[in-house]
Each structure stands twice: as structure tokens, then as C-alpha cells.
Amino acid sequence: MFRRLFANAVLFAAVLGGALVLSAAPAAADFQSGWQAYQRGDYATALKDWRPLAARSHARSQYQLGIMYDQGRGVPRDPAEAIRWWTKAAQLGYVEAQHIVAQAYFYGNRVKQNDKRAFRWFEKAAKQGYAKSQYTLGKMHEYGLGVPKDQAGAFSWFKKAAEAGMDKAQYNVGKLLRDGRGTPKDTAQGIRWWTKAAVQGYAKAQHGLGLAYISGKNVERDYGQAMDWLNKASDQGNLESQYTIGKMYQSGLGVEKDQARAFSWIKKAAEAGSAKAQYSLGNLYRDGEGAPKDRKAAIRWYRSAAEAGYAKAQNHIGMRLARGEGMAKNEVEGLMWLTLAAKQKDRAAINNRMALANTLAPDKVAEATRLAKEWKPK
């Protein structure tokens, strides 16, 4: 799960522009000369200065050569050669190189994917205090990647990165404290960590705080605070916050009821891909709340949510198909959708599926079961 969620992130942000190189003072005049040449785009001079240093086990020069081969700066792009130089620097203890080599093994980028090797390199960098590696070790312990699942280990590494100021580590520390995973449950302390992350602009923490102020759990209920944090997260594109703001306007939580605003916020989240918002938008079109009634639009949004895997929408579409309500009657397809929702333990779908299946011939039930097995979310 962790790898899938983060595989599209910038895996080698440390590489782009050589930004991390600025973190250490020049080790020698020759390196500094090469660095100045590199900065002005004179890669030939940089290579001339750094190659001899790298050959003499100068880790920072080896790291820079890795960047040049990775980006094709002054040399033909050669990811394998980049990894070779980064590995040399990593073996000498250069922490940025250790983290990059770890990422390469973790994502299978430039080398064959290997969680255990990734873990070893992340651990070397983490023990030097490198927060990004500490955070990733937390995730690897949490999900059992390259190491047995260990929630206490996850909490320990997250906390190190959090104490170094990493916002997403602070958020994860808050989550584990809230849930009592790897550490005694302490929701109030979790809220404090979320606040640290939220102040830094981390959208998930801002959303979490918004929900906490709505519920009044371990903080004094404060709809104004909730709206402030939800708006901050929404401004960053957090769909859950956009949806929640819509529901606050719909219910009048801390604001005057405003169905038009509720419709606008929920539609915004739905159009951006929130299945829950798509289902709610279907309800709004069905009931004419915030917009004129529109049965076709309602069904379209229900189907979008169902195709995204939202169980309530799957149950809804399943029943419409079974009855022929606003859609051509198709009991087999209806049973397929009910089966999918029932697999997610939706209580209404479990009952509806059983009732419909009892009215159909065995071959139709078998066909619906086959379709459900082959179905994939869009």
C-alpha cells in the first residue's frame, strides 16, 4: 500500500539540481572549483575536477558524479553508472547517497527492486539522523516491507523524523497515538502532533484537525476552527476537506444552512474524483437540494461512485438495475453491483444481494458472480 501510494512521488528530489550538495562545506579546493563550474553549467570542468577526487574515494565527488550520470550532464545519461557512483559514496557513509541508493532498491528504480537492501541503506542513513530515511523506515516497519511488521518500530522511527521537524512524520506520529498502535493510546498528544504538522501546511493533518474540532474529541468542539483548518486543506486540493465543508453547509454546522454552497463544495470534490462526494452529489440531484432535480445527473453520479468502488453507490445502482428504476432493468448486472458492495460488508447490500439472488436462476447468479470477480474499479 505504502509503495503504491508514494511511487508517483518525486523519488530523487535530492538529485534534481544537486540541491542536497549545498548541505556540506567543500571538502577540498578542487571540489569547490568543480562545484562552481557545475553551478554555471560548465560540466566538462566539473568532471575534470571531480573525477580524480572520486577515484581517491572522495564521497561528495562520487555523489556528484552520480548526479551527472543520472541527469546526463556533461556525459551520456547512464543510470547504472549513476548507481555505481552513488553506491561508492554510500559505502563511505555519505548520507544523501545512502538515501538515494535505498530509494533505488525500494522502488526498483535503476536497480532490481529489493526491500531488504532498501531497508539496510535507509537504516544507515536514518542512524545518521537523516529524517527522510527515518520516515521511510517508519513506513517499512508499519507495512512489513523488508522487515516484519512492527508498529512499535514504526512509531519510534516516525517520532525521530517528527522531532526533526518533518511534517508528514508528525502526522503519522499523531495517527499512531490516536489509534494506540505501537504506543499507548493518547489522542490528546496525537492532536498536538497533528497541530505541529498542520501549522507547517500538511493537508492531511489540517483535515484531521478539522474533523477533531467538529467531533469535539480531545479538543473543545469549535466549528469555526474546524472550518479554518478544512479550508486550509481544501486550498491544497484535499477532497475530503472539500466534501466535509459541503456537508457542514448542508447541515448548518457552525454556519447557516446553505444548500447552494453545500452543492458547490460537494460538486467540486466529486468532479475531482471523490467517490463519497459523487454519491452525495447524486443524492443532491435526486432530491433537488442546491440545484434543480435531475434524475439523469443523479444516476450518472451514482454510477461514477459505484465504478470507483464506493459501496453505498454500488448498492444503490444494483437496486436500480434490479428494479429498473431510471435505468433499463438488468438483474444480472444489478446482482453484480450488490455482490461487490456486499464484499465490502455493506449491510444493506448483503441483505439486498441475498433477496435478489433468491429470485434468480442459478445460471444468472453464476454469471453475476463471474462479472463481480472480473470487475475492476475505474
Structure overview:
- The chain has 378 residues and is mainly α.
- Among the domains are: 201-276, Alpha Horseshoe (Serine Threonine Protein Phosphatase 5, Tetratricopeptide repeat); 309-378, no CATH class.
- The protein is built from 21 helices and no strands.
- The protein has helices spanning 2-6, 29-39, 43-55, 59-71, 79-91, 95-107, 115-127, 131-143, 151-163, 167-179, 187-199, 203-215, 223-235, 239-251, 259-271, 275-287, 295-307, 311-323, 331-343, 347-357, 362-374.
- α10 packs antiparallel against α11 and α18 (311-323) packs antiparallel against α19.
- The longest helix has 13 residues, at 43-55.
- The radius of gyration is 27 Å and the shape is elongated.
- The two termini are 18 Å apart.
- Residues 8-26 have low confidence and may be disordered.
On the 0 to 100 scale, the average pLDDT is 93
Share of residues in strands:
under 5%
Approximate helicity band: 55-70%
Order of helices and strands: HHHHHHHHHHHHHHHHHHHHH
Q: Tell me, what's the shape?
A: elongated
Instruction: Please count the helical segments.
Output: 21
Number of strands: 0
Structural classification: mainly alpha
Assign the CATH superfamily of the domain at 201-276.
Answer: Tetratricopeptide repeat domain
Q: Within the CATH hierarchy, at the fold level, what is the topology of the domain at 201-276?
A: Serine Threonine Protein Phosphatase 5, Tetratricopeptide repeat
CATH architecture of the domain at 201-276: Alpha Horseshoe
CATH top level assignment of the domain at 201-276: Mainly Alpha
Low-pLDDT regions: 8-26
Provide the gyration radius in Å. 27 Å
User: How far do the termini sit from each other?
Assistant: 18 Å
Largest sheet: none
